[in-house]
Amino acid sequence: MNKKYLPIGSIVKLKNKDVLIMVTGYYSVEYEENVMIYDYSGCLYPEGLMVKNGICSFNQSDIDNVIFKGYESDSYNTLVNNFDNKDTLEEKSINLDNIEDLFGEDIKTTEEFEIPHYKFDENGILDMNVSSITDYALNGAYFYAKHILDNTNYKKAIAFGISGDEKHHTIKPIYLDGREYFMDLPEVESFISFNSDNIDEYYIREILKEDTDEEKTTAEILKDAKELHEYLRNYGNLSDKDKPLVVSGILLALKEIEYKNFSIDDLIGDKVKTDGSKIYNAIKDNLDRSQVSPETKKDKLLSQFSIIKDTVILNEKNDILGKTPLKYYTEYLYNKLYKTIRYNQTSEDYLGRFYGEFMSYSGGDGQSLGIVLTPKHICNLFCELIDLKPEDVVLDPCCGTAGFLVSAMHDMLKKANNEHEKTSIKRNQLHGYELQPYMFTIATTNMILRGDGKSNLICDDFLAQDANKLQLKGSTVGMMNPPYSMGKVSPEKCELSFTEHLLDSLVVGGKAIVIVPQSTMTGKNKYEQSIKENILKHHTLEGVITLNTNTFYGVGTNPCIAVFTAGIPHHKDKICKFIDFSDDGYEVQKHKGLVETERAKDRKQHLLDVWFNKIEAPTKFCVETSIDSDDEWLHSYYYFNDEIPKDLDFKNTIADYLTFEINMITHDRGFLFDAEENK
């Protein structure tokens, strides 16, 4: 007996559901542990597609009551009557041969864009007929993986169905564990998640659906940061600016425990020799032990740490705690943070993470203090895009908490061939400038805690330095996240000024990589345009990578990465890469902020493969072209989309434009939208 399918637009109530559903289509396919084919697709009524992920699938048997029946025409009757006369999903597809007659020659069907990748049988599972195994990638992968499990001692397998060509392809992994069905896994663009370093993490996250050790660690860091913020505020009455100074100072003091020169048990709340003075003296001893020089630099650090011994409330016993706040903080940091930083061998900028969390829990993002901390994954990406070598000399002229230098140090140490090279890296090949004394103190502390014995950081204005003298440092790589929006106050302090000065400060052939607002790459006012022209006269632009708009989550900046070669004039025929990496595999999650998803490693590997010319990519991802100084050095400027746009594309374009306009206005470029002023 044939089913009588309801027409599109019908409204139904499903069994055991209190909501109304409007029929929007037929033969919906859903992917869970099994592949399932349903009679209908639908959306909530009256909300429709206003609800995120609002499309659902259901069968005729799920319908409890038909509230409203949609329009029935002769063509509708012909369509649904043909459904049950067909045996396979492929045959159930609507015939679109005459679509050009209806909409014109320019219309494209889904079939023209999609690559045949799998085929189901009448039961909604992968078809195991010989033709399907040979003609469909996923069917073949499933067949051979199951054969392996059936005929070997292996109990679990991950197989890949691969179809398409170099530019347009689909790589679909599936997981089998000996049962008749498989677990559908997200598509990937590379096999980076499945190498020996990453496969365990992938298995835990994607197959077991559990948090990885890193995710658990991150969650713990966020929890500890929140707690410490509350303790610093409640028991010490500390400002946002002073919190990280207290934290970093205590960490330096704790380092003296190794030399039996400091003990937490000695913090007894004595009013003559206070807890703060004991911690301060331990800080001084550790700076001597770390060979921090010159003396003026050490004195500057100690002047910042004097808050620990001079703040009365920190050195008085708290009735609630039964001890001084300083002792309480010291115990907390020893157990929660010190051991992690001291013995952790990753590039994680823990002090920077804590600082960022302090700012967020204070109800701000640190912008009032001039701080936009670079996320860990961007610091690591810098090292990979530059292809950092163990012999490189790295300069960060706006080093903040030293996140770039920490990442560079660990990357270079990993590649070093012997202990001599490692010593040279730590003592001679990492240089930084930081203008703000408290940030300079945190950065120096961070480097000392990571084993950088001398810590070649200078508290000074980078723009005030003579570029010719800076070249004498022999820096081959420059990494920079300059202060944003300084050009509002002083045009000569705009992001492009910092970029040009960095390029002038590197050796000929050195590489500079910077993260700046996208608006920096437009250079529409005369001053910035002149800088762009001057950059190309003396240096070479290699490419610009547009990043996820949430990279600096909560700050409201749309960033991009620009890569240059210093000291070599830009040839007019030079081909540059402009990449749209807005889909980087990171997403904002409630109560966590920006977090890494299972796609992040894969997306990054795809970016690196394209950047280093290992694979080609469609222009939607990467445009390769020559440039002029008056171009907008962004992917969106050079990219031409020759596909027919959909309604959603239009909405997204409008949203992107509004975001761009707001970004321009906030960076003092509102004049771009004033027609009169631009005449």
Q: Could you describe the 3D structure shown?
A:
The chain is of the alpha/beta class and 679 residues long. It is 40% helix and 16% strand. Among the domains are: 11-85, no CATH class; 130-210; 494-644, Rossmann fold (3-Layer(aba) Sandwich); 647-678, no CATH class. The protein contains 25 helices and 19 strands. The protein has a 9-stranded mixed beta sheet, with helices on both faces. It has a 5-stranded antiparallel beta sheet with strand order 4-3-2-1-5, with no helix packed on it. Residues 86-115 and 362-370 have low confidence and may be disordered. Strand 7 and strand 8 (183-184) form a beta hairpin.
Distinctive features:
single chain, 679 residues, alpha/beta, Rossmann fold, nine-stranded mixed beta sheet, 16% strand
